[in-house]
Amino acid sequence: MSDDQVPAGATRIGGFDSGGRWFVLGLFGIGGAALGFIFPFLTRWAAELPWMPFQGPLRLLGSFDHGWLTWGRPLIGLLLGMVLASFVIHSSAVLTMTDEQIEVRSAETVTLIRRDQVDGVRRVGGKLVIVNATGRELLNAEVEGTKDEQRDAFVKHGYPWESGA
User: Fold this and answer.
1) What's the whole-model pTM score?
2) Is 107 buried (19+), middle (13-18) or exposed (0-12) by CB count in 10 A?
3) pLDDT given for residue 4 in this prediction
4) For residues 113, 115, 119 and 125, what is the CA-based torsion angle, rounded to 10 degrees?
Protein backbone atom coordinates (compact mmCIF):
# COMPACT_ATOMS: atom_id res chain seq x y z
CA MET A 1 0.00 0.00 0.00
CA SER A 2 1.40 3.42 -0.92
CA ASP A 3 1.61 6.34 1.48
CA ASP A 4 -1.34 8.05 -0.25
CA GLN A 5 -3.77 5.10 0.17
CA VAL A 6 -6.03 4.82 3.19
CA PRO A 7 -7.91 1.64 4.21
CA ALA A 8 -11.68 1.73 3.68
CA GLY A 9 -13.47 3.59 6.48
CA ALA A 10 -10.25 5.09 7.86
CA THR A 11 -9.14 8.71 7.83
CA ARG A 12 -5.56 9.84 7.34
CA ILE A 13 -4.22 13.13 8.65
CA GLY A 14 -0.72 14.49 8.66
CA GLY A 15 2.23 13.61 6.53
CA PHE A 16 2.80 14.93 3.06
CA ASP A 17 0.93 13.99 -0.08
CA SER A 18 2.91 13.46 -3.30
CA GLY A 19 2.76 17.14 -4.27
CA GLY A 20 3.77 18.20 -0.76
CA ARG A 21 6.78 15.88 -0.79
CA TRP A 22 7.99 17.36 -4.10
CA PHE A 23 7.41 20.88 -2.78
CA VAL A 24 9.45 20.24 0.39
CA LEU A 25 12.24 18.55 -1.59
CA GLY A 26 12.36 21.46 -4.03
CA LEU A 27 12.20 24.13 -1.35
CA PHE A 28 14.97 22.61 0.77
CA GLY A 29 17.04 21.81 -2.32
CA ILE A 30 16.82 25.36 -3.68
CA GLY A 31 17.53 26.77 -0.22
CA GLY A 32 20.58 24.53 0.14
CA ALA A 33 21.86 25.48 -3.32
CA ALA A 34 21.39 29.19 -2.52
CA LEU A 35 23.27 28.82 0.76
CA GLY A 36 26.04 26.96 -1.06
CA PHE A 37 26.30 29.81 -3.53
CA ILE A 38 26.43 32.63 -0.94
CA PHE A 39 28.49 30.67 1.63
CA PRO A 40 31.87 32.29 0.82
CA PHE A 41 30.35 35.77 0.90
CA LEU A 42 28.72 35.10 4.26
CA THR A 43 31.86 33.66 5.83
CA ARG A 44 34.03 36.55 4.65
CA TRP A 45 31.48 39.06 5.94
CA ALA A 46 31.16 37.25 9.28
CA ALA A 47 34.96 37.11 9.65
CA GLU A 48 35.08 40.93 9.44
CA LEU A 49 32.74 41.41 12.41
CA PRO A 50 34.85 42.27 15.47
CA TRP A 51 32.62 40.37 17.91
CA MET A 52 32.43 37.16 15.83
CA PRO A 53 34.25 34.17 17.34
CA PHE A 54 36.36 31.83 15.18
CA GLN A 55 37.38 34.53 12.71
CA GLY A 56 40.42 32.54 11.55
CA PRO A 57 38.42 29.45 10.51
CA LEU A 58 35.77 31.68 8.91
CA ARG A 59 38.42 33.46 6.81
CA LEU A 60 39.81 30.07 5.81
CA LEU A 61 36.38 28.76 4.76
CA GLY A 62 35.68 31.94 2.81
CA SER A 63 38.99 31.72 0.97
CA PHE A 64 38.27 28.44 -0.81
CA ASP A 65 37.71 29.68 -4.34
CA HIS A 66 38.92 26.88 -6.58
CA GLY A 67 37.17 26.63 -9.94
CA TRP A 68 35.20 23.49 -9.11
CA LEU A 69 33.83 25.08 -5.93
CA THR A 70 31.98 27.68 -8.00
CA TRP A 71 29.50 24.97 -9.01
CA GLY A 72 30.46 22.47 -6.28
CA ARG A 73 29.22 24.46 -3.30
CA PRO A 74 25.71 24.96 -4.72
CA LEU A 75 25.60 21.29 -5.73
CA ILE A 76 26.69 20.18 -2.25
CA GLY A 77 24.11 22.58 -0.76
CA LEU A 78 21.43 21.14 -3.04
CA LEU A 79 22.24 17.59 -1.98
CA LEU A 80 22.38 18.49 1.72
CA GLY A 81 19.07 20.36 1.41
CA MET A 82 17.42 17.36 -0.20
CA VAL A 83 18.79 15.03 2.49
CA LEU A 84 17.36 17.33 5.17
CA ALA A 85 14.03 17.47 3.31
CA SER A 86 13.93 13.67 3.14
CA PHE A 87 14.49 13.53 6.89
CA VAL A 88 11.67 16.04 7.49
CA ILE A 89 9.28 14.13 5.23
CA HIS A 90 10.19 10.74 6.67
CA SER A 91 9.92 11.83 10.31
CA SER A 92 6.64 13.74 10.06
CA ALA A 93 3.77 12.12 11.98
CA VAL A 94 0.99 10.44 9.99
CA LEU A 95 -2.20 9.37 11.77
CA THR A 96 -4.53 6.78 10.29
CA MET A 97 -7.65 6.51 12.42
CA THR A 98 -10.67 4.29 12.54
CA ASP A 99 -13.49 4.09 15.07
CA GLU A 100 -11.45 1.50 17.00
CA GLN A 101 -7.86 2.84 16.99
CA ILE A 102 -5.34 5.44 15.85
CA GLU A 103 -2.16 4.33 14.12
CA VAL A 104 0.64 6.88 14.48
CA ARG A 105 3.58 6.53 12.07
CA SER A 106 6.66 8.68 12.53
CA ALA A 107 10.00 7.71 10.97
CA GLU A 108 10.43 4.01 11.73
CA THR A 109 8.04 4.04 14.71
CA VAL A 110 4.46 2.78 14.60
CA THR A 111 2.26 3.33 17.67
CA LEU A 112 -1.29 2.07 18.08
CA ILE A 113 -3.65 3.95 20.39
CA ARG A 114 -6.91 2.12 21.12
CA ARG A 115 -10.12 4.17 21.21
CA ASP A 116 -10.85 3.09 24.79
CA GLN A 117 -7.54 4.67 25.90
CA VAL A 118 -8.42 8.12 24.53
CA ASP A 119 -10.21 10.55 26.83
CA GLY A 120 -9.32 13.81 25.13
CA VAL A 121 -7.88 15.21 21.90
CA ARG A 122 -6.88 18.85 21.47
CA ARG A 123 -4.46 21.19 19.76
CA VAL A 124 -1.93 22.98 21.94
CA GLY A 125 -0.12 25.53 19.85
CA GLY A 126 0.87 23.68 16.70
CA LYS A 127 0.85 20.26 18.35
CA LEU A 128 -1.81 17.61 18.50
CA VAL A 129 -2.21 16.18 22.00
CA ILE A 130 -4.07 12.96 22.86
CA VAL A 131 -4.56 12.21 26.57
CA ASN A 132 -6.03 9.36 28.63
CA ALA A 133 -8.29 9.56 31.70
CA THR A 134 -5.38 10.23 34.09
CA GLY A 135 -4.07 13.07 31.90
CA ARG A 136 -1.12 11.08 30.56
CA GLU A 137 -0.19 12.17 27.05
CA LEU A 138 -0.50 9.33 24.59
CA LEU A 139 0.61 11.60 21.75
CA ASN A 140 2.17 15.04 21.68
CA ALA A 141 3.37 15.74 18.16
CA GLU A 142 3.26 18.22 15.34
CA VAL A 143 0.87 16.87 12.74
CA GLU A 144 0.45 18.49 9.34
CA GLY A 145 -2.98 19.91 8.61
CA THR A 146 -5.28 22.58 9.94
CA LYS A 147 -7.04 22.47 13.28
CA ASP A 148 -10.40 22.15 11.50
CA GLU A 149 -9.25 19.17 9.41
CA GLN A 150 -7.92 17.44 12.51
CA ARG A 151 -11.04 18.17 14.56
CA ASP A 152 -13.34 16.91 11.79
CA ALA A 153 -11.37 13.67 11.45
CA PHE A 154 -11.46 12.92 15.17
CA VAL A 155 -15.14 13.85 15.56
CA LYS A 156 -16.04 11.72 12.53
CA HIS A 157 -14.63 8.66 14.31
CA GLY A 158 -16.15 9.50 17.70
CA TYR A 159 -13.08 10.72 19.55
CA PRO A 160 -13.62 13.40 22.24
CA TRP A 161 -12.30 16.65 20.73
CA GLU A 162 -11.67 19.40 23.27
CA SER A 163 -11.87 22.97 22.08
CA GLY A 164 -8.98 25.21 23.01
CA ALA A 165 -5.85 26.70 21.54
Assistant:
1) 0.72
2) exposed
3) 57
4) 50
